[in-house]
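A sample follows:
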Amino acid sequence: MKKVLIFGSTGFVGRSVLSVIKENRKDFVVEGLCINKNIKLLKKQAEEFSPKFICIYDEKVAQKNKTLFSKRIKLFFGEKGLEEFSQIKSDISVMAIGGIASLKPLLLNLKSTRRVLLASKETIVCGGDLVKRTATLYKSEIIPLDSEINALFQLLRKEKKKFLKKVYLTASGGVTLNLSPEKIKKLTAKEVLMHPVWKMGKRITVDSSTLINKGFEIVEAHHFFNLDYDNIEVLIHPQAKVHAIVEFKDGVKFASLHFPDMRFPIHFSLYYPQRKELKISNELNKEIILNFYPVKKAKFPLLYLIKEAARRKDNSLVIINAADEVAVDYFLKGRIRFLDIQKTLEYIFSIYPKAKLNSEEDIFFWDEWARKKTEEFLNSLVK
């Protein structure tokens, strides 16, 4: 049985991983669970999966609830506890902590695990080269959990790059796809979170409607598969049945097709390189119609901003990620309008001082700089 650590077990990805493990208990055992502060759900998970280790990042919540768990469970609290939890040996770790907060535990965990299933795309967006070097140094394997990047992983793993012409990532377009500019201006957080296809966390759902999320996936594809940015294209695909397409020099294309359910890439990644039966419906209507459209810059300008930032190979992606985290948080709290997210990112991108990233410390320095500048700008909007 393979020992599994789950970082972010109460989030959408963490819950999906546990649902797959629940159906495959003969092959996997939950070694540890890590959360921020959803103690109610953590208690249920601990009772069902009996982990040896639990980490609660929010120290106030941890101290208040530490007597809830069996004495047989070793508890870790706060930032120091997260560092210690990250160094527990495992066969598989699932990194599903949201945002840049996942970078430090990932870098530590790569020293102690054989395989990381990576859902926290911000680690690659902000520190792709550093993460890759660390994984190589400690001979730890990283498999992307994003459905589109995971689909590329499956499509490309037995193919030779020299024959490859282009790869295509698909995007549903979120709730904004068929809305007029006037309606987009008036979108509320509640409306944006009603994604037409996927059930996901709040920030990623908002990012799916601006295509920031898809821009980050372009960066992931670049790092994971050593692809030139010119060879990565995004297509609008409202049905979200096709997750990636690869095109070879002879014009032949191969596609990865499954229903929009995260259990497909999770199941594949847990068992890789084997394939096991997954007992969920994936029947396809014989008359299914698949539509693909180019991404219009006027409709989704932030996708093109991400592509420009990625090509600069400086601190710009760290800046954009931080600004987006802050702006989306303001939007979800009802403090700014939906289009203010775009306005904010374009402003921060126009003023940031360009700099090279040479270390983990550089990443967090510019992350903090961008958050401060973004809050200053947003507070001026709110006034």
Q: What stands out?
A: The longest strand covers residues 28-35.
